[in-house]
Amino acid sequence: MKKILIIIFTVAIFVIGGIFGYKKILSIEKENKIIQLFNKDSLENFSKNKNEMLEKLKTLNKEEADKLYEQYLESNNTILENLNIEHDKLLSGGIYNNEDTSENFTDEEWKIANKFLNKYDLELWYLARGTCIIKEVPDFYYKTFKDYVTDDYKEYLKITSKENEEHYVADSGLCITLEELGDRIVTWENFLEKYPNSKLNDKVNNICNSYRRDYILGVPGGIYDYKESAEEYNRFIKKYPDGPTTELLGYYLEEVNLDEPENNDSEDLSKMIDEYIEKYFYLGSLENRKKGNLFSEQTNTLLKEFNKNKEEVINKLKTLNKEEADKFYEDYLESNNEILEKMNENDYIMLDNAFYIGEGDIDKEKLNKQNKFLDNYGLEVIEIEEGFMLTEKKNFYYNIFKNYVSDDYKDFLKLRSEDIEYIDYLSSINEHPEIVADKVINWEKFLEKYPDSKLRKKANDICYSYRDDYILALTSSQTTEVLKNGKINEDVKELNRFKNKYPNSPTTEIIKYYLENYKNDDINDMLADKNIEIYNKGE
């Protein structure tokens, strides 16, 4: 019995061993069959190229290593392009995720193929629509160059190696979450801020802008949920309130219809976002933002032109007589108006939105920082009725021309330098009309002092505007009703103050006319006609 058991046991060992041996043979055959699908000589060429590069890399300083990386990357791209062309039949033949073809790799076969390719620091990578490519393993360039290149290159390669670990997009759209994509944007923004002079920044800025577009507009083939995306954008805005992309998201959220998303025109939204990114996320924009400069690339180009023109004007003035300087001022003013018009047109979106916090509160810190940057140009951003506007500082022309032009031009520019800011002017009319009254008198005195000035029409227009606003503010229907009731209010007191202080002023003539005719139902039209009559006398 014992002998029989020994015999059975011995036979079993041989049978089991044979089975395992057979399976191993089959496994080796399968592995060899897959390996034979690849051209080993081409793979060896890739490795040889790497080894030759490594020997050279060890002899270089960091800046030279940066340059070698760029050259090697270009060389590798060519080698890999040829490698993929050589294996096109295999790679485009449905070897991944396509059970309808006999060529489809099982998970095991996919692992075998990549185990083989990994020996060369390569791997199979599913691209899209049944197509695969052979590419470097995710950390290939980082582990190869990290100990040799400059800090910016090292960090760049580290970031890209991490991003390359997972698919970004596939047939069904994004393969990472919107939040992860938002974090990628911030990572690259931080890189641009940390290394403002890196030679990689053009490439990095393009990556960042591509991510911004996909983050907001989605990717082809993806399902876009406006409301779900808006929740992510609000998270981003809250987490990165001072980030440049936050302004872009704020602009988008103002334009998109979240209540009726089916009414959104995706093409219009796409065009809007593309234009905004092109304008405000140019290479160097983050560095400019640190200086307070929020303007577009086009406007920054015009700012340089504006400053260059100013320097040329200052030098040219020294060679002119007063009459020539007067004419030169007119030409320069016209030229500047054209440039400023272009700049305001370029950046009307930014000017309408960038300097507000919440519901209409002004971000004074941001506005002051922007204007500090503009000091070098003699320009400033000022608040107007809706939004903001870029314009010259009030004393811009006076400071440049005061020592060169004739007396009437000098006085004209001095008065213009003392103009009231737009928003302050609106409040002055109602709260401090005496301030506007002083402007009226100053311009009336100019017209009286320089009856033959070439600036007379401009001065008369300005005077008319101040006078009209002053009179309209003080002769409202409420004031007229007060007078009809035999009483007086603050407006009437101001009218009396003016006519008593300036009895010979043309404006006093209008005030007297009003006080004599306020009972007339057509008094407003009569006052308008009277103001035009006085304006015409000033022509």
TrEMBL record:
Q: Which domain of life is it from?
A: Bacteria
Q: Which InterPro entries match?
A: TPR-like_helical_dom_sf (IPR011990)
Q: What is this protein called?
A: Tetratricopeptide repeat protein
